[in-house]
Amino acid sequence: MGDWRLEVFRLSVHDVFFPVGIFWYFNQPDYFEEHVKKRREERLKLYSNPEYRREVEEFAERMRKRQAERNEKG
Fold first, then answer.
1. What residues does each domain of the chain span?
2. pLDDT for the residue 27
3. Diameter of the chain by CA atoms?
4. What is the dihedral of CA 72, 70, 47, 53, to 10 degrees?
5. How far apart are CA 70 and CA 66, in angstroms?
6. Given pLDDT bands bounded at 50, 70 and 90, which one contains residue 1?
7. What's the CA gap between 52 and 69, in Å, rounded?
8. Which residues form a coiled coil (predicted)?
9. What is the Cα Rg of the chain in Å?
10. For a pLDDT cut of 90, what percent of the chain falls above it?
């Protein structure tokens, strides 16, 4: 076991600097532009595809039917 100085160091690293560093990194405009906007554009392109939309709607309908069957049983 260490003394109080080690505990103060650990507290500062684990509870202060690490969360602040992560918050700072992921809220940078460059990171947002590079990753988030790119992913959003990919999803919008994919969802605008009529075949993909049809598959998603069919899947949602199957899930609704399955849930309705489970609700009737129990």
1. 4-73
2. 84
3. 65
4. -60
5. 6
6. low
7. 26
8. none
9. 24
10. 26
In the structure encoding, which two tokens stand for residue 6, read together? 């080690």
**Distance from C-alpha of 27 to C-alpha of 20, rounded to nearest angstrom:** 11
Give pLDDT tens digits for 7-21: 888 888 888 899 899
Listing DSSP states for the chain in one string gives: ---HHHHHHHHIIIIIIHHHHHHHHHT-HHHIIIIIHHHHHHHHHHHTSHHHHHHHHHHHHHHHHHHHHHHHH-
pLDDT digit string, tens, across residues 35-55: 888 888 888 888 888 998 899
Backbone angles phi, psi at 49, to 5 degrees: -70, 120
Per the structure block, which two tokens stand in for 14? 């684990």
Task: Report residue 37 as tokens.
Answer: 């906007």
- The model scores a pTM over 0.70: no
Extract the tokens encoding 59. 């899947």
